[in-house]
Amino acid sequence: MTMNADTNPLVFPGLRDKRVLVTGGSRGIGRATVQALAASGASVGVAFRSAADEADRAVAEARRLNPTGEHWHEAGDLSNESGCAALFERVDQVFGGLDGFVGNAGIWNAQPRPLGELALDEWRHMIEVNLTSVFLTTREAALRMRANGRIVLVSSTAGQRGEPDHSHYAASKGAIISFCKSIAGELGPSGINVNSVAPGWVDTEMSANPLQTEARPHIEAEIPLRRIATAADLAGPICFLLSDAARHITGEVINVNGGSVLCG
Ligand code: NAP
Questions:
Q1: Model confidence pLDDT, tens digit, residues 67-125
Q2: Distance 204 CA to ligand 1 centre (A)
Q3: Which of the listed CATH numbers 3.40.1170.60, 3.40.920.10, 3.40.50.720, 3.30.930.10 matches domain 10-258?
Q4: What is the pLDDT of residue 264?
Q5: pLDDT tens digit string along 185-229?
Q6: Label partner for 219 (CA 20 to 30 A): which of 74, 158, 235, 257?
Q7: Could you list the active site residues?
């Protein structure tokens, strides 16, 4: 097997003994971020909605990579205040504060939803899960941080150039970017950095349809680097923004998409 970030998580400076919460840490990008954080010596809290077996595995991997860290998971729907309150009660009990927060949980549906067919319920659900959850969790996370705190919010290429037939998704992600830039200005004087990582196509369950279909070569052909990102390709930039190496970066969006926004 080739040794790379997919099989051997990279190690980032300044994360040893940091307490970091990752939403959507049970699968995909969040799971790879949990691994890279643990490999870097951090303690990691994994928030997820319902995939308990996956969350168990994520915590077991973190314990293997950093046996002295405190790793845990908490289930709950973060699009409502009660799910969010339960998560941060656990943060208070186990961590007693936070050094880093990764707002990554989200949904996307492969089914095209042209504007004329998009129902209000679908719009509301997308906005609540992708955007309201980020507002609720980031508000609580920031209250538990001191100087040198780090917040990374996962947005999307779609939030910058739009995504035809997925306007509700694109709107939720575009709003995450403007939220990120706004609170970077608010929290900067307290020494808290806020940035966003914007993935293009990433090989996870979310994008299995279309990436696990015959459409994949066509999608790859439209990306300048001619490859689809792995979850580890996103975990690296997320951990970089949480690390000492990024201490003077705030209010930025790092595109991790193989150059695909260049060709939109
Ligand atoms: P994924 O593999 O589908 O994982 C989604 C994660 O979010 C899971 O841990 C899931 O928990 C959690 N989650 C979903 N709804 C939730 C809710 N209401 N409350 C709490 N947790 C919830 O997704 P991914 O591909 O890693 O995507 C991660 C982020 O990257 C998302 O914000 C997504 O929009 C963004 N992104 C992904 C791509 C891509 O191509 N994959 C591209 C651009 C942006 P359970 O495991 O319990 O369901």
A1: 999 999 999 999 999 999 999 999 999 999 999 999 999 999 999 999 999 999 999 99
A2: 9
A3: 3.40.50.720
A4: 56
A5: 999 999 999 999 999 999 999 999 999 999 999 999 999 999 999
A6: 235
A7: 169
CA separation for the pair 152, 237 (Å, rounded): 10
**Cα 206 to averaged position of ligand 1 atoms, centre (Å):** 7
- pTM equals 0.98
Counting ligand 1 atoms within 8 A of each CB, the residue from 84, 196, 206 with the most, and so the one to mutate, is 206
Q: Percent of the chain, pLDDT > 70?
A: 98
Q: Which residues line ligand 1 (CB under 6 A)?
A: 23-24, 26-30, 48-51, 54, 77-79, 104-108, 129, 133, 154, 156, 199, 201-202, 204-207
Tokens 């973060």 found at: 78
To test ligand 1's pocket by mutation, which of 77, 108, 220 has the most ligand atoms within 8 angstroms of CB? 108
Residue given tokens 């609720």 in the structure block = 136
Instruction: Give the distance (Å) from ligand 1 centre to CA of residue 104.
Output: 7
Domain boundaries, the chain: 10-258
SS3 for 247?
coil
Would you give the distance in Å from CA 233 to the centre of its chain?
12
**5-27 residues labelled b (16+ CB within 10 A) or e (exposed):** bbeebeebebbeebbbbbbbbbb
